[in-house]
Specification:
Elements lengths: L30 E2 L2 E2 L14 H10 L1 H13 L3 H15 L2 H13 L6 H17 L3 H14 L4 H13 L3 H14 L4 H13 L3 H14 L4 H13 L3 H14 L4 H15 L19
Helix pairs in contact: 1-2, 1-3, 2-3, 3-4, 4-5, 5-6, 5-7, 6-7, 7-8, 8-9, 9-10, 10-11, 11-12, 11-13, 12-13
Length: about 290
Amino acid sequence: MTQDNVSVPVSRVPGAAGPWPGPRRTPGRVTAVLGALVITTPVSAATVTNFATCRALAEQAPAEALTAAQGWIDHGGGDAARLCRAEALFLHGDFPAAGEAFAALAAGGGTRTAAQTANLYDRAGLSWLRAGDAARAERLMTTALDTLPGDSDLLIDRALARAEGKRYQEAIDDLSLVLKTTPRRADIYLYRAQAYQALNQLDQALADTDHVLTLKPGDGEALVLRGTLHALSGDATGARLDWREVIRTEPDSANGKVAARRLSRLDQAPAAPPGATGGTAPVPAKP
């Protein structure tokens, strides 16, 4: 059996929770030392003798890949086989076991680079985040950052874990560090705006959302958020303008449907008492 010298996949958890819902990262991509390997033909457990084949099987049939990876481990597959097993556990939805497997690989030493070790700790953290243990995820991601200080992707992942644990200020701190080195990342401003919203720091959230729309004019998600922030601030007119723009430009998208729901609820909200500003009561920030 062959034993690949495989670099650690840079893989992001899809659909993780936090103040920013929905998938923000792509599922795992595997990069071998000698270049990217893409498997497009079906494989079976009997053919698993290298990481690329094993990972392809994990994507097609995770349960079969678990059996195949264990057999490969038993026949001297080494870290490449153990990495495939960890990937298969994650894809099979056994996130605690995947977290343990990635962490064991990271702590196992060997000839990996700092970046590879950090990515393994990050994968462990992302697995625990999917398992619902944000505190453990944050600890593992902090270990990853201790190994590879200042890495933007690791900071973003730790911010996600911190937000999931309702540690919004710490999430903001991580995102602010990312923006120091990549100041034109519209997605990071959007994440930070959502964290500011969770802290009810609406002025800061609005400023970040405006920055997103400067970098990405007409962005539907940013317009939905800005409309919500206007509504929460008592500015019903501003909320209606933003939500109507989303409905106009992308009526059938998820953003358009959220905007329509929020606009409907705002229109049905009771009038504000005499002397109040904004015209109507703020609409809660729910989908």
